[in-house]
Write a structure and sequence with these properties.
globular, 18 strands, FAD/NAD(P)-binding domain, 554 residues
């Protein structure tokens, strides 16, 4: 990625074929696809890259098992194919993961349906060349994999496979891939309005949220890929716009791995016909998710006590000896699904039954919009969006998309990936870097993990862990500021390292040393330094409040 200063200069003085509003996975995918076709592309995001829904998911790249319950075989097949593709294109970041669905003696009909569903899932996945198949486990095998589960009424379990990732990091990798193809990306740039020639868009009026500077970027076509903010952007072009998005809120809680003993991810059926995941992730356990209509501030969704207690209740219903309570929770987060409104019903409708499909549509001035969809299918959504964009570009002929074979992470093919991982690991070991840190760096930064290791080699004190219980190190702060446009403490803790959602208290304990390092890198004055610490403290306490009445200070 170019520096932010250089990218701003390019944005202000260039006519682009396509401007993409929204730096989540949908916008990143469109920018990558367009750039791979030889188009000039600018991507802007009003906050940080992946700061919305795209960093607040269950971190799964999945084949859509639940869609089989709706007999949507074609969609499931597409998702299985994309899952297999992402395993190949991002081997450091998208990894196979096993799940166990416990079976109860009380629910024989459900057990039979689950067997049938997973058999069909395997059959559909065959076209994606999946090498993993579900299998039935007896009660003792289930308890061996997940000792925390209760043996009472346990009839066994079904073991199946999907993939896990780091959602914020995969968004950054897709954006970097777009930039390697010539795209320009900018965070903290807000779309304030549209410029037009007659009835057609001619550009976007932008505001730099860090300097307050306003400028107009000229572009031949504009895509609105802002998720739950899509209606707000549409209103900039049409004040009478009718809403198409219904936000659905989902929360997750984080507990230490020791709080609920399991060596595998769990897929827990609930009495309200949903499922709750218990997923080992980043040396902790992530539990989620909920699904409720949301009418609050879409810029700052937060978990509440009822939602947290719901997840605790579900998990505790499956155990006798490992019962969780609020004091076990080290972190939590909430995200909003941008569900497309295909009916005229209001915001109070049951969001769990609403479609997860994406919708591509045009609004006033020829603005192209994409809303809905899933992390797994971002590349497919981008392909569809570009079909519409291509019709708008009368004076340029887009080439053929190459995203189906563009590896993420800085590799060009699998053999290079294997060789570079070996070299990076060897170099890091020679510097005395802990193996868990090496694995974390490669999984997070791909080939650029070597750059992080180089920083440690030049400044050994930056090999120190940011938080004592987790692998991220101070050198990542330097790397993220210099190479990934990290501009504030929130960027580092919430999205570049994920520490803020893993452990709120340890994040606050580490805030000062990270802030002083960023002060050196970004030349903050004392006022800005204190403002950053105050802002992070406020955010952490907002997340801690539903868990505990304690207030923690930096």
């Amino acid at each position: 990625m170019k520096s932010r200063t250089e990218s701003l200069q390019v944005a202000k003085h260039r006519l682009f074929d396509l401007l993409v509003i929204g730096g989540g996975i949908a916008g990143a995918g469109v920018a990558q696809n367009a750039a791979s076709r030889g188009l000039s592309v600018l991507l802007i995001e009003k906050d940080d890259f992946a700061s919305g829904t795209s960093s607040r998911t269950t971190k799964l790249i999945h084949g859509g098992l639940r869609y089989l319950e709706q007999f949507r075989v074609k969609l499931t097949r597409q998702l299985c194919q994309e899952r297999a593709r992402l395993e190949r294109l991002a081997p450091h970041l998208v990894r196979d993961f096993s799940f166990i669905l416990p079976l109860s003696k009380k629910h024989q009909l459900f057990n039979w349906k689950a067997h049938l569903g997973l058999a069909l899932y395997d059959l559909v996945a065959l076209s994606a060349q999946s090498h993993h198949h579900f299998n039935h486990l007896g009660p003792s095998a289930v308890l061996e994999s997940a000792p925390a589960l209760s043996s009472r009424e346990l009839a066994g379990g079904l073991k199946f496979h999907d993939c896990i990732t780091d959602d914020a990091r995969i968004v950054l990798e897709v954006i970097k891939s777009a930039c390697q193809e010539g795209a320009v990306a900018l965070n903290y740039i807000q779309a304030k309005g549209f410029a037009s020639k007659g009835t057609a868009l001619d550009g976007v009026v932008c505001r730099d949220r860090y300097t307050g500077d306003e400028f107009t970027v000229r572009s031949k076509a504009v895509v609105n890929a802002t998720g739950v903010w899509a209606d707000e952007v549409c209103k900039l072009a049409d004040p009478n716009w009718t809403k198409k998005i219904t936000p659905s809120k989902g929360i997750h809680i984080i507990v230490p791995a020791s709080a609920f003993e399991t060596n595998t991810a769990l897929f827990l059926p609930t009495n309200d016909n949903r499922y709750v995941f218990v997923v080992p992730w980043q040396r902790a356990l992530m539990i989620g998710t909920t699904d409720e209509a949301y009418a609050g501030d879409i810029n700052n969704p937060l978990p509440n006590r009822d939602e947290i207690d719901y997840l605790l209740h579900i998990v505790n219903s499956y155990t006798d000896t490992h019962r969780l309570n609020r004091s076990d929770i080290t972190g939590c987060f909430a995200g909003l699904r941008p569900l497309v409104r295909f009916s005229a019903s209001g915001d109070s409708e049951d969001t769990s039954s609403m479609s997860r499909d994406h919708l591509i549509f045009e609004s006033a001035l020829g603005l192209i919009n994409v809303a809905g969809g899933k992390l797994t299918s971002y590349r497919l959504m981008a392909e569809e969006v570009m079909e519409t964009v291509s019709q708008k570009l009368t004076d340029v002929e887009p080439g053929v998309s190459r995203t189906a074979n563009m590896m993420l992470g800085g590799w060009s093919h699998k053999n290079e990936y294997l060789a570079q991982v070996a070299n990076i690991s060897s170099k890091a070991r020679n510097l005395g870097v802990d193996p868990s840190i090496i694995d974390h760096l490669i999984a997070s930064y791909g080939a650029e993990a070597e750059t992080v290791i180089d920083i440690v080699e030049q400044h050994p004190h930056l090999g120190e862990r940011i938080c004592s219980d987790y692998p991220p190190i101070l050198a990542e702060v330097v790397f993220s500021v210099q190479n990934e446009m990290a501009l504030c403490l929130e960027d580092i803790f919430f999205r570049r390292t994920r520490l803020a959602i893993l452990n709120s208290r340890q994040t606050l304990e580490a805030a000062s040393k990270v802030a002083h390092l960023m002060q050196q890198l970004l030349e903050w004055d004392k006022v800005r330094l204190q403002a950053e610490l105050n802002s992070l403290e406020t955010q952490m306490n907002e997340h801690l409040q539903p868990v505990s009445d304690m207030v923690v200070t930096v």
